[in-house]
Amino acid sequence: MGFGSELKPSQLGTANQLVHAGNLSLQDLREFMRDWAALEKDHGQKMEALVKRYQKIKDKKNPSLSVGSTGKDSTATVADPTGEFHLDTDGSSYVKVWDELLVITGQVSAEHLGLADRMTDEIVEPCRVLALKKEDARRKHMAYCQALLDRRDEAFADKDKKQQKYNEASAHALALQAKFERSVNDKHHDRHRRQYEKALIAKNHAQNQYLLSVKVASQLQAEYYERDIPQLLDQLQNINESRAYTARWFWTRWTELQTQTSQRLQTHMGQLGQTVKGINPEADTQHFIARNAMQWSRPLDFQFVPAPQSNDRSEFELDEDDRVFLTNWAAKQRQALKAVNTQIGQTQVPLTEFQQALKVTDPNSPMGGYNDLLENVMELDREMMTLRWDQATYNTEVRELSRVVRVVSDDERHQFKSTTFAIPTVCDYCNTKIWGVGKTGYNCQVCGLNCHKKCMLKVPAECAGTPTAMQRQRSLSRRSSRTPSIPTPVVAVANSSGRAPNAPPPPCPPQSTKPRRSAEAGRAGDLLGPSDSESDSWDGNNSDAENNGHGSTFYDTRSDLPSYSASQAAITNGPRQPTGIAIPAHRPSNAALNAMPRSAAAERGHLSARVLYDYKGTGPQDLPCRTGDVVYILPDDQVGTGWIKAELHGRQGLVPLNYVEIMTATDMAQAMPEARVLYNFTARDASELTLHVGDLVKVTNDRIYEGWMEGILRGKTGQFPADYVQKI
Length: 728
Prior knowledge:
By secondary structure, the protein is α+β, with helices and mostly antiparallel strands. Helix content is about 50%, strand content about 10%.
């Protein structure tokens, strides 16, 4: 027998009062021992005054310690079937110890002075620590009980809120239906029909949500009354009984000290010791239960209540839009259920270990591990209780929805990832833009579909998989037909945290809408070619808009290089090796080249920015730069608002955001001088560029060492002899 099986949910507060009174009595015990040690020096009269003082305290608190504030006064005898204890009509064994204690206290007024020091060291201070721990454990437990009750009430309130929303949506749909039926011959008949269909869909959504909330509220109510409250009551019982074990140990130790101090008090201390050993927490528990027995039954389950003036049934609405939404919702909740089940399994392992250790641990010693084990078990029990609430919620929704819709497996559904679009992107569901700081959308990592957060659950759950280039082209063509025009975006300077966005190179438009471009645009495209991280998804001349979700224009210079003029052709058909021009022999070794700082940001195609003001920096994390320098913006989620992480001459650091301006492709093309290749040059290792006569190279460093330059050609950065090119 225990609190959980015998007491009712409404008696949780009564059990809490018992535990609280017990914890206060443990504090009283500590204060008693402290006062005793002080009064040992004063003997006689002060000791007698102490007895009178605690007699009043005992008389006041005895009812709370025995039967609680609402317990029955009628006497009863409760016997244990095993014969281990017997509960008589005088009250709890715990209260009896107080009675005997005060009697003995009146006889020890001449106690030895040395007893005071031993009591302080061995009883008073440990008792204070344990009393605080017990009370803290009770407060924590009751706080969780209140949180659980609040969560239950929140579920009930959510049900009522969704019921109200459903009622309003139903009333609105009925009103529009009436208007639609009255306007048969009206010129606005079609508009009324559309309004009514839209309202009907909204009503169906509201009805489904309300029905789900009814199921969840009923399930949570059952969990609360049938499992959680009994378990919480049992845990209160554990706190109360462990406190009694603790008090019993202190009293036993105190009696031993008294015996050692004075042989004259051995008889009295022995009598008190026997009384103290008679403390039986189980018997006290049964005494409390017997005085607080009452009848109680669990509330009935909730039922679906149709909206007024509607004929809705307790069934899900399964129109096409409803099926899509419910299928997505079921898949989402099933994913959440898997995570909760994993957490339950992970929590159950240590819980079982603690429970097994608790069974073999002696509860009589408060300095041992019993109390710590008990607190660990209770903490994990509460955690499991919370997880089971989530499990019950997800289980109920998945079970109910699997009866009416197909639950899409994880391999079939979209793999959405929350994304902030620094460049305007069209939502593939509603054809409106996703753009702006704080306007988070979602991108499928498999098929590249983009959508608003509000549209995610309305998109058909089945993912078509990674699109081919032709599929992406058709998708872009359809999007272009849906959206008349998308203005060229302005690259955002900072994202929501104030840092420069890690903007990937803008994709190429569909072939049918691709504008003609000049040679200057082609050279700018070389600078903004696909980065290393995007090379896997790059598809030649075709755009990758479905994957990166950006709507700006990008020209692939690999297929749109400017044609050579006749003079250039003559140069090309001329001698392939320069005469009289040797490759500089004092080029550093490969090891030295690898040790030199490289412009990795330029190779990866990061955004560039022009420095507007000199910045010297205030610490090692800053990047000193001068007016006119061109820096590469690096992505970094740890940079605070108002700062960007940038790279200059191979060094990385922080620069104030308002000290720079973002450069467009034209700006970058103008900032980097060009050089025309005069002679063919074959790269001898990965750090060099292979040049062909007539190539145009973007010069990033015109003198990295004597006779050598660094530049960008066809998206690759490398070194080449300075005498093999001519700046233009």
